[in-house]
Design brief:
Blueprint: E1 2-6, H1 9-27, H2 36-57, E2 61-70, E3 73-79, H3 89-97, E4 103-109, E5 113-115, H4 128-138, E6 144-151, E7 171-175, E8 184-192, E9 195-197, E10 201-211, E11 217-224, E12 227-235, E13 240-250, E14 255-263, E15 276-284, E16 288-294, H5 299-309, E17 314-320, E18 333-337, H6 344-351, E19 357-361, E20 375-390, H7 401-408, E21 413-422, E22 427-434, E23 437-449, E24 452-458, H8 462-473, H9 477-491, E25 499-502, E26 506-508, E27 514-519, E28 532-537, E29 543-547, E30 549-551, E31 554-558, E32 565-573, E33 578-587, H10 600-610, E34 614-616, H11 620-627, E35 636-645, H12 650-669
Parallel strand pairs: 3-4, 3-6, 6-7, 7-34, 9-15, 16-17, 16-18, 18-19, 19-24, 26-33
Antiparallel strand pairs: 1-2, 2-35, 4-5, 8-10, 10-13, 11-12, 11-14, 14-15, 20-21, 20-22, 22-23, 23-24, 25-27, 27-31, 28-29, 28-32, 30-31, 32-33
Helix pairs in contact: 1-2, 2-12, 5-8, 8-9
Length: 673
């Protein structure tokens, strides 16, 4: 529908005057030779043509408005997690067919949202908040009328759906599952050390819940690779029992050890899949010894120690410098903090030994010059506040986006102010930041001289970072990961081989398993001209063979998801005959099997809070009537404005051509050409 033509009215008057003057000047002199009628016709045609051409130069725009009718949108969500025993694929299709005058979108969800309905309930998590927030993002500013969600009310991942952002849309719930307490015995959790050392015994606690089996006896067994390592008979004294069984297991073999705990199955149990629980322990033969030397107590020391104590790979020893009488060569890393001038000889002695060092330098940089000779500093003043930012060129190890965000939001460190002279060969991880401007001055920097790594953390106040991280995230995971990555980088010896393989040691069952590889030629230049074959072998001796993809000058491989268990791997460059061996663990996710009683109260509260209603499976016809109610379905009418330049209209050019042709015909016919 045409609304108006947008142009400047003042300039249009000039276009008319231009057309009039041009046409009169062209034909006025010929007025005596032309009859009066022809004179007016030719003058009018030329006037229209010139006026129209001048008008087009003004770039006029046609504004049109279109009326749009947007039908109400109904989203149907199917819970496809393992805790749901019913599969309503067919019933939900029938439900959608019974709705009219609406647009219907079908999804299923477990850990996240997926297109369409699913024929199998195999999701290993239930995350309501992810699904609802995804719906909110997809249908924001659209005519979302209501959501229909078929689920059992049990979620084990994400936040409570009652706090979702989409609660301004009616949510109708279809209540699945059984709210009655059924007869069931189940292993709900097993607590154990993930890493133990060869030859040690490690404590394990097995948690068992029992419903309605009072007076019976359970047989608990623990097996490793099919061999029985523990068994115990447990008497059940009540209809509702919570049992904790502590036991000690021996770490007798190196590598990832697979254990299976199981309890006996009784007649009448409806669910037996939760009677077994698999867990894994990584048995290692050694760990890193770390020495922390200091002269004065400081909260930064406590923050660093708290991180090291949580890492099972590290054995940390703390000593005052004057009290230390040991041998540096007994340690894999030496950490220095608040060393005084009187112990400068210890720093000089340490600089001559090929042992990695991490330095927490508060103010006196010159004291550590023997350990960091390629960085000079001229002190101008003390107690200067500095902020940190990640150096984008740093690539010695990965720094996650969460850690980068944490660093950008951390309080300032306290350091000396002065002029730095940093060698370009040093590896700068954190820059000093002034406002939004990055400087070349370091906060965290590394050096590597003849395979000896030295890390330098400038300033004091790292303990504030730990507190701030907890304030922002209710945990210290980002701070802990940052300190662990710095420590691990200093501890790990550089791989000088020409074939390098990178992968994680542990994956969850639902994670994609990724590998990266690098191959170097004799000049230590990256070279991906040869194929790399990867062979994975599970505990049943089944083999899976993959070929790496060549991307840029490296190798990448995504093998997707694997069944839980431990896997041995062999990566081989066929032509060179070079191999890399290793192992990794895929941990099972059994959380969906722990809760067996549906939570219909949660679904009722969710529907009531959003203005929806709850229905049982046998009342789907009532749900169809509610959704088809006119009050629930409102068609939104809107107008969409579009702009189009007049010169882009095809018939405008035809009119101009017609005007020129008619004038030319009259002039030709009357001998004026």
């Amino acid at each position: 529908m045409l609304d108006s033509i947008i142009f400047s009215s003042n300039l249009f008057v000039l276009c008319v005057l231009l057309g009039l003057l041009y046409s009169l000047s062209l034909y006025f002199k010929q007025q005596e030779t032309l009859n009066k009628k022809l004179f007016y016709v030719l003058t009018f045609l030329r006037f229209i043509l010139i006026t129209f051409l001048a008008f087009l130069i003004l770039d006029p725009v046609i504004k049109s408005s279109t009326k749009i009718f947007e039908k109400p949108i109904i989203v149907i969500l199917q819970d496809a997690s393992q805790s749901v025993k019913e599969n309503l694929n067919t019933e939900l299709d029938s439900l959608s067919n019974g709705l009219y005058d609406v647009e219907i979108y079908k999804y299923h969800f477990s850990d996240k949202l997926y297109e369409g309905f699913n024929e199998k309930n195999n999701g290993i998590y239930t995350n309501y908040s992810n699904a609802l927030n995804d719906i909110h993002d997809r249908f924001s500013n659209k005519n979302l009328s209501s959501i229909i969600m078929a689920t059992d009310g049990l979620y084990n991942n994400g936040s409570n759906p009652l706090y979702s952002d989409i609660l301004n849309t009616p949510i109708h719930t279809i209540c699945l599952g059984d709210t009655n307490i059924i007869r069931d015995n189940r292993i709900t959790d097993i607590k154990h050390n993930e890493i133990v050392f060869l030859g040690n015994d490690f404590m394990t606690e097995i948690y068992i819940e029992s419903d309605k089996f009072k007076g019976n006896s359970l047989l608990l067994k623990v097996e490793r690779r099919g061999a029985l390592v523990f068994k115990k008979t447990i008497n059940i004294s009540g209809d509702k029992e919570f049992l904790k069984v502590p036991l000690e297991l021996a770490a007798s073999d190196i590598g990832v050890q697979s254990y299976k705990a199981s309890i006996s199955v009784f007649e009448g149990e409806k669910i037996i899949s939760n009677n077994a629980y698999n867990f894994y322990v990584d048995v290692i033969n050694s760990k890193y010894n770390i020495l922390l030397l200091h002269d004065f107590s400081h909260p930064d020391i406590a923050a660093f120690v708290s991180v090291m104590d949580r890492n099972k790979d590290y054995d940390l020893e703390i000593s005052k410098t004057d009290d230390f009488e040991g041998n540096f060569f007994d340690y894999n890393l030496v950490v220095l903090h608040s060393i005084s001038e009187k112990n400068k000889d210890l720093i000089t002695s340490l600089s001559t030994k090929n042992i990695p060092v991490l330095i927490f330098c508060k103010q006196n940089y010159s004291l550590y010059s023997a350990l960091m000779p390629r960085m000079k500093f001229q002190n101008r003043s003390s107690n200067n506040e500095i902020f940190a930012a990640v150096n984008n060129d740093f690539n010695s190890f990965n720094i996650s986006s969460k850690i980068k965000d944490m660093i950008n939001s951390m309080p300032p460190l306290i350091s000396s102010f002065g002029v730095y002279d940093v060698s370009p060969s040093l590896n700068l991880m954190l820059n000093q930041r002034v406002g939004s401007t990055f400087t070349d001055n370091p906060v965290c920097i590394f050096d590597n001289i003849e395979d000896k790594k030295v890390g330098f953390l400038i300033g004091e106040g790292w303990w504030r970072w730990k507190l701030k991280d907890y304030q922002l995230n209710n945990n210290n995971d980002n701070f802990n990961n940052l300190m662990n990555k710095i420590t691990q980088y200093l501890l790990v010896k550089d791989d000088k081989s020409k074939f390098r393989l990178f992968y994680d040691k542990e994956f969850n069952q639902n994670n994609s398993i990724l590998f990266e590889a690098e191959v170097y030629n004799d000049n230590y230049e990256l070279d991906n001209n040869e194929e790399i074959k990867l062979t994975l072998t599970n505990t049943d001796k089944e083999e899976y063979v993959f070929l790496f993809d060549r991307i840029d000058d490296k190798y990448h491989l995504d093998v997707g998801n694997l069944e839980y268990g431990s896997y041995d791997l062999i990566a081989k460059i066929e032509k060179r005959g070079v191999t890399k061996k290793g192992s990794f663990l895929v941990k099972p996710v059994q959380i969906e099997l722990l809760k067996t009683v549906a939570d219909h109260q949660l679904l009722f509260n969710l529907s009531q809070q959003t203005g929806g209603q709850s229905f049982l499976v046998n009342n789907l016809n009532d749900l169809i009537q509610v959704v088809n109610n006119k009050e629930e379905k409102q068609i939104i009418t809107s107008f969409e404005d579009t702009l189009k330049q007049v010169i882009d209209i095809e018939w405008i050019l035809l009119i101009l051509l017609l005007l020129i042709s008619i004038e030319w015909f009259f002039r030709k016919y009357n001998g004026l050409i």
